[in-house]
Amino acid sequence: MAKSTPSAAKRVPAKGNSKAPKSSISKKSKPSAAPSQGLTHVSSITYKDLKVGTQVMAAIQDISPDALILDLPFNKMGIVKGISNMVDEDDISEHMKQGNVALKSFKAQHRFRRGQLVTAAVIANDGSGREGSIQLSLLPSVLNAGLTSKTMKPHMWLPATVLTEEAHG
């Protein structure tokens, strides 16, 4: 048979200690406030917060021949129209003349995939808050507008489009 242990009420204080044992739980315990460690609170954005020129990180939700639907942060959506014209026609014709590039490589279905992360810039916002009311651009010329050698920093995410791959050796 197992011995029964004395209940907490019958415990005897240790020798030399005339006071009853203190509870380890204080009557009023305050939660300790941990230091912020440099973290800041990010509030949810609204469609009205997405002003022209704002850059956002987005994921491609849907691809059609003429447009991309993007998932924006905080469950917002935007649209990129005219994706068939996203590359400068002069660049396309120059590379096609060289025989390096097939035309299909410039179609949206070949350039993008669902779930791909992209950086987009807001180019129009009608302020209605409806899906599709935010028009975005993926063009590097729009995303990098105002970018200078002084504003570029190490490890910066710099949107660009690769037109050709060349091996130099």
From TrEMBL:
| Organism for this UniProt entry | Perkinsus marinus (strain ATCC 50983 / TXsc)
Q: Which domain of life is it from?
A: Eukaryota
The record places domain S1 motif at 53-139
Q: One GO molecular-function annotation for this sequence?
A: RNA binding
Region span, Disordered: 1-38
Cellular component annotations (GO), alphabetically ordered:
small-subunit processome
What name goes with this protein?
S1 motif domain-containing protein
Give a GO biological-process term: rRNA processing
Q: PANTHER family from the xrefs?
A: PROGRAMMED CELL DEATH PROTEIN 11 PRE-RRNA PROCESSING PROTEIN RRP5, PROTEIN RRP5 HOMOLOG
